[in-house]
Amino acid sequence: MFFVLSKIVYWLVMPISLIVWVGLASTLVKSVKLKKILRRTTIGFFLFFTNPMISTLIINAWEPAYERYDEIEDTYQYGIVLSGITNPNRPPFDRIQFNKGADRIVHAIDLYKRGIVKKLIITGGSGVLTFDGKKESHQLMNFAIQSGVPSDDIILEDQARNTHENALYSSRLISSHDPGRILVITSAFHMYRAQGCFEKLVLEVDTFPTDHYGRELFFTPDDILIPSLYALNIWTILTKEWLGILAYKMNGYI
Length: 254
Fold this sequence. Notes:
Number of helices: 10
Strand order of the largest sheet: 3-2-1-4-5
């Protein structure tokens, strides 16, 4: 129920939905004064959520800084890779279909080959709402093997549908193996929630943020004034993440 409800709430309040709801309301109300207010609010929402400078400042403040390989002094028994970075149900099915978050698995493989992590735990089932779908973690495991990681050094968890379950099911796998230091590998925008879920289960973890959406801000017309779909996408990602954090805190997951 929580999984379904979270999807519905996100759909209702994501930025593009807010713009549509307010714009639709402006066409339905009879009051001329209220109609003007709603129309101006629609335009204001559009300009705010598509402004590249605002979205860049917000995402830069939210995401943790990147980690340089040569600055990592420790080694870890487990590198836990959170999925949610492919389209496993999109044909053709003879290859892996990556989204932007491919850095999660690519950097995890790099960490393994550098000797920073000894084993990879790849966690994630299907996040599809209406049917089981294909198991994303299986595709990521195959990709890691094709990239040179021995299958003996990969532990698969293929039931988790969200970040809480990623942490819960992975912790069960860890408890059944030799304990050791843990490195959580996921997108930078998602790290706060992921780290909180693992630490709620009394697992001491370090983090390796990847897939940063933040960037250097250039004070040019393109970065200050011209509306950008990329800026809208940043707000969409952050809205989903912030709603997830709120829901997880209400449920005691973090």
